[in-house]
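Reopening this ticket.

The earlier resolution said the output was attached, but the attachment link was broken on my side. Pasting everything inline this time so it's all in one place.
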Amino acid sequence: MSQISIHNTLTRTKEPFTPSQDNTVRMYVCGPTVYDDSHIGHLMGPVLFDTIARWFHCRGYDVRFANNITDIDDKIINRSIETGEDWHSITKRFTQKYFDYLNLLHVNTITDFPRCSDYMSSIIGYISDLVADNKAYEAADGVYYNVRDHKNYGKLSGRKIEDMLSGARIERDESLQHPADFCLWKLAKAGEPSWESPWGAGRPGWHIECTVMATELLGSHFDIHGGGDDLKFPHHENEIAQAEGHGDCYASCWMHNGLIQYEGVKISKSDPRNKDPEFAKQFKAAYLLEEWSAPVIRFFLLQGHYRRPFDFAPKNIAAAQTALGKLHKVIGDAIADDLSQTDVLSRDLPEDLAKLRDAFATAMDDDFNAGAAIGHLFAMAKLVKQHGEIASVCLRDLGRCLGLFQPSDVVSAETSANDETLNAVMNLVLSLRQDARANRDFATADRIRDDLTAAGITVKDGPDGAVWEYI
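Inline output:
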């Protein structure tokens, strides 16, 4: 079995991957808090880690992949108070919309979608263990974890405890022993949803939810914990602390995907540009999937490296749409074929195709560098004219290792419209060039050809006239 290497945020090094048990990769990725419609940040992680899971499958591993649903949280309660809608109804509705988006994006490797509300007894038991072992204590408004007594707190984020604020999603209380102590159990106010516990009716803190769901499903020691780079602190730091305080080894490898940018500038919740509804809607899942189509958004997310920022400027998504359209055109009707081909990494191929296939695999083995792997797909596309179906099918099946070129994928209506418009424009340009040649104005004819080449289009003259194609 080929060796996969992964950049581990915890150790800050790239490490060879070996599963902790048997041949199964156990992976947990933080999911959404379901109080509102999803934005693209909620979908980036599932798409990227679905691609990672797919590659593990291609390399012969089994994968158990958990993606949690936070269905009890202050934001949900506040939305219920604002709208008058029952919190169960809110979470059910937005959870289903999240599932619908994942389905459109071909995210199908997730095996478990744990909901916090289904794990209350386990959460209460876990907190009870921490309290009994003096790792946590009761305060005026709930139960808190004592970070000062935890060795190496801050090892994931690199923050020093004396410089920290807890970052928890609650108001602070003077009864805390240290400002970095974080909430495990929050006592409920009148009218809020709550569960009975040894410390009074309440609900769990943000961080304990993930720790309990991860260990319940994947065991006290599992392989990979993933999420957005913004979750390293406080969320993931606190997950590690409470898990180790409980005696669990927890995750061996921590992986963090890059965050959203727009024209090179990071997008945050406090970004003043988000006050403009037209700007803010560009990051809504519904808008992106309708405006550009799910295959284009998936392809866009995979064009770079998962650890780098993702710039959602429309020109960048449009470029991804054009690039994907080129690959679809090369593959042709083979996209509609079923998914039965599974031997793409081992099948016999002509030497030049085999080298590109192996380069694709090497890129994915090297910290899942999908952007570099896609580059090899474009190189392979240039060999389709030479090798025919064997090359187009290999291209298709390698793309399917990334979740691309699924049978249901079609080039979007806008791409098709662009192709028709481009064909009409190019026919006019080639006609003008032909007129220039007929009039022996070779300088103009050559300038048209050279300008098209600079734009990524090559012109070939033949006995039946000139034809064009993408370079």
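Reporter confirms the inline version is readable. The longest strand covers residues 221-228. The CA atoms of residues 414 and 420 lie 10 Å apart.
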